[in-house]
Amino acid sequence: xxxxxxxxxxxxxxxxxxxxxxxxxxxxxxxxxxxxxxxxxxxxxxxxxxxxxxxxxxxxxxxxxxxxxxxxxxxxxxxxxxxxxxxxxxxxxxxxxxxxxxxxxxxxxxxxxxxxxxxxxxxxxxxxxxxxxxxxxxxxxxxxxxxxxxxxxxxxxxxxxxxxxxxxxxxxxxxxxxxxxxxxxxxxxxx
Length: 191
Hints:
mainly beta, Thrombin, subunit H, 6-stranded antiparallel beta barrel, 1 helix
């Protein structure tokens, strides 16, 4: 076992931006305490052999690890960013929207999310790290992916089936940015 859920805040926000959606949150994330935090594997992210763009899935094989991922100091629309997904591997897309409120599966709402387009996403990619590549040995942490799917849907889906070029639809995914994750989790005492 890698870790256990130590803090999984309820989706109980009542901000006006929640639009009376019953389940509403600042970030779709939880804090997992590593079973053995002293282990080097507990603090690393898989580095894919290749990063693929244009809605295509990337390889799920990896060439090594990123062991230090400082937070990105800024993001902007048009920035090319990567994610490392369990299902669709290393993909690159373009940041399309920042700090927008999104309803997922018509059941829950996440405030101040960010959207990446033209990057494949698939079932099992939720929880993937979203990164800015700073070169072959360094990446900056941007956020955590929580939903995605075809661009022509009104809302993204959690656990969506593959969205990639063969489906004929451009893809998107949404993620909770680090600043929003930190704000969200700081409201609760960590174990």
